[in-house]
Write a structure and sequence with these properties.
It holds the Pfam family Cupin_2. InterPro entries: Cupin_2, RmlC-like_jellyroll, RmlC_Cupin_sf. This is Cupin domain-containing protein. The structure is a single chain. The protein is mainly beta. It has one domain: Jelly Rolls, CATH 2.60.120. 7% of the residues lie in helices and 45% in strands. A hairpin with a 2-residue loop joins strand 1 and strand 2. It is globular. The model has no long low-confidence stretch (mean pLDDT 95).
Length: 118
């Protein structure tokens, strides 16, 4: 089996305040490319769509451009930037740092439910 798709022609695009997510659905993989504009913050841009206090999506990702700060429910914080590979458990807030968009790729499979109203 071989399956190839281009993120330039996503299966779905989800727009939310100050950003958007492009999703490609494949056999055994849901892949997402997220673009977060300066001023984006999960708790301000996606919380009402998700209907939860914090982001409850598990992320396995890679930052292409820009910077993002992530705060876990327990208060732990870290910043990710270009070239960083990250794993973030459910129960977090995140926001763009600086005045450049943050572009991140997500291979978690759970990204299929991100910024999608139930």
């Amino acid at each position: 089996m071989m399956e190839i798709k281009s993120i330039e022609k996503p299966d779905e695009r989800r727009d939310f305040p100050r950003g958007h997510l492009e999703v490609v659905n494949m056999s055994g993989l849901v892949f997402g490319k997220a673009t977060f504009e300066p001023g984006w913050r999960w708790s301000e841009s996606v919380r009402d769509i998700a209907g939860t206090e914090l982001c409850e999506v598990h992320h396995n990702g890679y930052v292409v451009d820009g910077r993002m700060r992530i705060r876990m429910k327990d208060g732990a914080e870290q910043e990710v930037g270009p070239g960083d590979v990250f794993v973030v458990a459910p129960g977090h807030d995140a926001w763009v740092v600086g005045d450049e968009p943050c572009i991140a790729l997500d291979f978690s499979g759970n990204i299929g439910g991100y910024a999608k109203a139930d």
